[in-house]
Amino acid sequence: MSRLTKKLHCVADFCVIPIGVGPSLSKYIVETQKILNEAGLTHKLHAKGTNIEGDWSEVMEAIRKCNVRLHELGVPRINTTIHVGTRTDKEDSIEAM
Amino acid sequence: MSRLTKKLHCVADFCVIPIGVGPSLSKYIVETQKILNEAGLTHKLHAKGTNIEGDWSEVMEAIRKCNVRLHELGVPRINTTIHVGTRTDKEDSIEAM
Amino acid sequence: MSRLTKKLHCVADFCVIPIGVGPSLSKYIVETQKILNEAGLTHKLHAKGTNIEGDWSEVMEAIRKCNVRLHELGVPRINTTIHVGTRTDKEDSIEAM
Amino acid sequence: MSRLTKKLHCVADFCVIPIGVGPSLSKYIVETQKILNEAGLTHKLHAKGTNIEGDWSEVMEAIRKCNVRLHELGVPRINTTIHVGTRTDKEDSIEAM
After folding, report:
1. What is the pLDDT of residue D36?
2. pLDDT of C53-91, one tens digit each?
3. Which string of b and e fits B61-93 if b means at least 16 CB within 10 Å?
4. Whether A8 contacts chain B with CB within 8 A
5. Which domains, and CATH codes, for chain A?
6. CA distance, residue B16 to nearest chain C CA (Å)
7. D contact chains, 3+ CB pairs < 8 A
């Protein structure tokens, strides 16, 4: 089986910025944390985003759901930044710096 | 059908940074452009990354394949940055600023 | 003289996201382009941001002024993403991929 | 005095990626943490970067020094990502989410 169809573990950091709503974003952060909890992926909130790790496709699907949920809550426009790290030389995790 | 399972159009910008190889990255850029061409998604290279648009899941899958391909070429570690915009108030595309 | 006080050339890409205002951001983009023109730095708008190059401190000062200007226009909160590339092995510019 | 010359407080997150060296980056992270300590700015390391806060120009100068230091250590190429938040509606800090 080609690696192109295998799972790809990643450690990511992302930040979802709702645009076109008020400047207080805490209620949206609460919603995205709920979705991450449901996704069952290891994640950890910090001052400017959320660290998350797991299979690439599952991580991106969880962040997609965060976007969809905020649109459902009435956010007309969202800008999401994602940093993703993958490596083949050793195991990587949120805990490993 | 819930929106959580529907397609989510996005306009994204991403940059794949190979780590642990030499400072010349052009051959890797060529490889990622091939994968984007195969994916059939509208995309456009600029000085610091690539604009791309399409369904969220297809865009993230194309970027995942870029990562897998570079690992196959011997890159031990990759850092990818992705900016993704989604909006429900109007159509969005690479051409619309 | 230590390199710590010398000029550091960089090629950057940045995106200024106004938060707490409406979803239409084009008038803010126009303002930031004016500031970049006044700064006299080479820059080029693309679908998800602006490429800019020059001395690190001048580039960051120009982006700072963009933030200050948007706050003056009533934007209560701003999220700015900046990707900066520096290199010592060869000349770098927006034109060099 | 115009706001354009006043201090602008920001809460930022940044990640410095050395290119063209080996995949182990921990020694470079140690160096950047030293520079941040010397800069006297509040900062906090997480799995995918460093949170930092202070006056915009001082924050960007500290990150510039990180880049210069890594080049001095022989890194030929660096890619730095910076997310910066500024706001005028309330005080912001690394501790305030």
Report:
1. 96
2. 999 999 999 999 999 999 999 999 999 999 999 999 988
3. bbbbbbbbbbbeeebbbbbbbbbbbbbbeeebe
4. yes
5. 8-86 (3.30.70.930)
6. 12
7. A, B, C
